[in-house]
Amino acid sequence: MARLSDKVAIITGAASGMGLAGAQLFAQEGATVVLTDVSEEALQREAAAIRDRGGRATAIVLDVTSPDSWAAVVDQVVTEHGRVDVLVNNAGIHIAKGILEAELDDWNKVMAVNTTGVWLGMKSVIPHMQRQGAGSIVNVSSIAAIVGGVADAGGAAYSASKGAVRSLTKHAAQWFGGDGIRVNSIHPGSVFTGLAAAAGMTMETMAEQLGGEVPLPPHVGEPNDIGYGMLYLASDEAKYVTGEELVIDGGWTTH
Ligand SMILES: NC(=O)c1ccc[n+]([C@@H]2O[C@H](COP(=O)([O-])OP(=O)(O)OC[C@H]3O[C@@H](n4cnc5c(N)ncnc54)[C@H](O)[C@@H]3O)[C@@H](O)[C@H]2O)c1
Predict the structure, then answer these.
(1) What is the mean pLDDT of residues 23-48?
(2) Would residue 1 count as lying in a domain?
(3) How far apart are alpha carbons 88 and 141 in whole angstroms?
(4) pLDDT single digits (tens) 37-93
(5) What residues are in contact with ligand 1 under a 6 Å CB criterion?
(6) How many domains would you assign to the chain?
(7) Assessment of whether the complete model's pTM goes beyond 0.85
């Protein structure tokens, strides 16, 4: 039996990077996947590609900072599929400005997507999961929530936003464990995604920069490395796991 048979999963930021890797793996493992993102063209293209390979996938535009957007998406999913078993709060942005360089607008933008978006996502799906008596929420944080230095790539608001996701995850795990709802966080180290490619980086140049920090070759992760973590936490294999921090960083935080 596939690892996510009969499960309905919503993934945010699923048009690229780790969110897309998770969506592809979830579909392979039998889930009905609802890919959401603000980037509509890529979203439609990637959902269609999953369907072409025989997976069950739909695409819905969702801005995670908007309560109305969340309400519309969750309503649509529950109307069409009758339930929400899994939510992966993956959408995130980064602004490489430290405490002294950042303006209030930079701070607010990062917090809105990375932290408020995660809270709104949980607020929107938890009542449905309570009615079902089960659910799994996976919040994508970062090792920037655990250590400083280059781990946050110079983003003060980023670091704070991901720290908030780490503690919000534990809060939710405590308060909703009794409803059968599991809430865990994933803390990726450096992973080669579209973001890095757009900045002109390759796996090799990233690995070269991080070789001293990350003991495990190839010294930089791939989106699937995180996708497999999402898959485990979403599945019933993790039925006794909640409030946990899954660090996937090639050993970076062992320093
Ligand atoms: N790449 C890394 O090295 C790394 C390391 C640690 C943590 N992370 C975290 O992993 C998650 C995924 O990052 P990625 O590297 O795959 O990045 P990515 O840029 O490839 O994907 C992020 C997606 O989020 C979407 N998005 C941005 N704002 C949104 C909004 N308001 N509403 C909905 N979607 C929105 C983007 O369109 C994009 O498709 C993020 O939360 C990021 O902070 C990444």
Answers:
(1) 98
(2) no
(3) 11
(4) 999 999 999 999 999 999 999 999 999 999 999 999 999 999 999 999 999 999 999
(5) 12-13, 15-19, 37-39, 62-65, 90-93, 113, 140, 142, 188, 190-191, 193-195
(6) 1
(7) yes
Would residue 253 count as lying in a domain? no
**Residue span of the structural domain in which 209 resides:** 8-246
CA of 178 to the centre of ligand 1 (A): 31
Cα dihedral value 183, 145, 171, 235, nearest 10: 0
Let me know if residue 17 belongs to a domain.
yes
Q: Which residues are catalytic?
A: 158
* Residue 189 Cα to ligand 1 middle (Å): 13
Task: Report how far ligand 1's centroid is from the alpha carbon of 17 (Å).
Answer: 7
Long-range contacts, stretch 60-64, CB < 8 angstroms, 24+ apart: 60/34, 60/35, 60/36, 61/36, 61/37, 62/12, 62/36, 62/37, 62/38, 63/38, 64/12, 64/13, 64/89, 64/91, 64/113, 64/116, 64/117, 64/118, 64/120, 64/121
Q: Mean pLDDT of all residues in the chain?
A: 96
Ligand 1 atom index nearest CA of 18:
16
Question: Which residue's CA lies nearest to atom 40 of ligand 1?
Answer: 92
Residue 252 lies in a domain: no
Check whether 195 has a pLDDT greater than 80: no
Ligand 1 center from residue 94 Cα (angstroms): 8
Atom of ligand 1 nearest to the CA of 221: 3
CATH number at residue 119: 3.40.50.720
Residue pair 157/95 in contact (Cβ under 8 Å)? The answer is yes
Q: Are 89 and 64 in contact (CB under 8 A)?
A: yes
